[in-house]
Amino acid sequence: MTFFACENLTMRFGGLTAVSEFNLSLNEGEIVGLIGPNGAGKTTVFNMIAGYYRPSEGKIIFKKRRLDGMKANRINKLGVARTFQNIRLFSELSVVENVLIAHHGHLKSSFIEAVLRTPRYRKEEDGIREHALNLLKEVGLAESADDQSGSLPYGKQRRLEIARALATRPKLLLLDEPAAGMNPSETMELLELLLRLRKEYGLTLFVIEHDMKFIMRICERMKVLDYGITIAEGTPSEIQKDPRVIEAYLGEV
Amino acid sequence: MSAKLDTYRNAAAVRNRLLTYVSLALLAIFLYIADAFGTEYEIRILINCAIFIALAVSYNLINGVTGQFSLAPNAFAAVGAYTSALLTMSPLEKQLSFIIEPVIWPLSVIHTPFLVSLIIAGLVTAFMGFLMGFPVFRVRGDYLAIVTLGFGEVVRVIANNTQSITNGPLGLKGIANHTDIAWSWGFAVFTVFFVVRLVRSSYGLALKAIRYDESAAEAVGIDAFWHKMFAFILSAFFGGIGGGLLAHLITTISPNLFTFFLTFNLLIIIVLGGLGSTTGAVIAAVAVTIGSELLRFFEEPMNIGGIHIPGIPGMRMVIFSFLLVILMIYARRGLMGTDEFSWQRAIDFLRRYKKGNPE
Which of B212, B213, B220 sits opposite A105 (nearest CB)? Predict the structure, then answer.
């Protein structure tokens, strides 16, 4: 059974074809990268998978279910979480609140129970709090739990976004440029963190990244997009040698 | 260490709960005394305060907490007022009131006690909020404001033209004067309790998430559409009951009672209090209700330095607007911003103040 697949995924905005006939198949536990020059359509692929765009054509299949056309929150609930290229935390709220919010989709108590603070609700809330604090510990943000999330340094905000995504209990995690704006040592920490999280939570990762050192090290396979068309795919070492990729990045030599 | 911290927290929680009970008891005593010794005018202002607290707090739930700029509270109040009034009026009263066209069948015989009427008014309004929500939450921001504004007008026009249900422009007269201090403040306290508890819960966090970034909220599994609906419906429920209480205070209602002006007043209150702050909504509701009465002073004829100024009706609104402009210049986020009152904060503040070192 395929874990996750995109078949002939196409996205058109008016006359512009942002992504055309994108195919992808992921096995459970894999880390696959998606690279390409700016404007190649990488984030558009993410937006289709996560339910922000309805694909013009093609199918998205996750554990035998069709995701294309589904609402973003439903896709998340089925086990596909994402982070954003331009960090989108609830920056006015505290660090721990950001993670608590992400548990709400799985909350069982009704609002009446929440207002009455019934034992069942309180137990659920305690469980959520504990889980949230554990996740913060996991990504190294336990000390900042009560800080305002918008005031965190950039690298920590990125990690908080990952913790928030994990709180929704995903099986597939889509990371949109997780290393953007990080210095080399932060990037290496992130690499270790992601490998550890994958093991611990049995995650499958699909990663967009411009940092070549990072993506070449973390991915087992990768795909290269240029002008919405898949121009290459293979292992990092194959991609590095591929003349079409070199051309896309450096122009014709 | 952590056990110690836990006992400390529990002690603080018990203390806070006690403080809440004590202040509620003090409020009850104050209201009881006011009810017994206050003039009719003063009692009326107190009742108005309570109704506006409830209306503002529930309006703030959708506008402030959830960040959806609705302009529909006058529609909710109108529906609640008409529903409850038609239920508490006796069949005979209705027969005498509806002189142009008789009232239609089920309404002509139904007659329910005040409490039941209020609850039904809340439920009917909530159901209307549910129906309205589908078109309303297809759009965002300014468009949402315009659509809800439109619904406010639609309700008024319908009330004017359904002679056999609302008695049209004649309105309903002789509604029993049920709304007293106990009803109005009971409802206000219930509304505040409900909304505060809700906002502090996981549901409240979800609503705030939608306010801050709807797409991000959906990315973490929050159903933005249904949560907006949820806040809107709750707001409608409380708004409907508030309207019912207003109807049984004023005793005469007509479609023109629930114009945009009511929404405008509530909007001023929640902006003044700080969008998203329940505490702010409560304080501002009391301040605006009492303040606009105090400002009546400026409408009386007066003598300044031998110059006689005749009373100018409406003068208080000019001064009121002026005060608002000043407030919005110096406190743009309202009195409270998005902060809430808590005993811990109040105590911390007093401690610092005592040390002669505020801030």
Answer: B220
